[in-house]
Amino acid sequence: MILERTNNEILVRLPAYVDLTELQDMLEYLEYKEITAKTNAAQADVDELSNMVNKSIWQKFKDKRGMK
After folding, report:
1. N or C: which end of the chain has fewer CB within 10 A?
2. Do the Cβ atoms of 34 and 28 come closer than 8 Å?
3. Buried (b) or exposed (e) across 10-47, using 16+ Cβ within 10 A?
């Protein structure tokens, strides 16, 4: 693995045999860290919003399929 810092970014070079599924999970976590790095939102607010979105998605799914 090679780690390199430039003026604008950090480059990570990995061998081709690295498991892409695990790498994708890691990249999604790093993207989350990048997006949330400058936020002032409290974790409780994030959790509440997440719950609201999940409930809304589930309700739309049930409505579309005529479920109670």
Report:
1. C
2. no
3. eeeeeeeeeeeeeeeeeeeeeeeeeeeeeeeeeeeeee
For the chain, the average pLDDT equals 90
Exposed / middle / buried, residue 6 (Cβ in 10 Å: 0-12, 13-18, 19+): exposed
Beta strands in 1-68 (DSSP E): 2-5, 10-13
pLDDT for residue 2 is more than 90: yes
pLDDT per position as a tens digit, 15-47: 999 999 989 999 999 998 888 888 888 889 889
Q: What is the pLDDT of residue 48?
A: 93
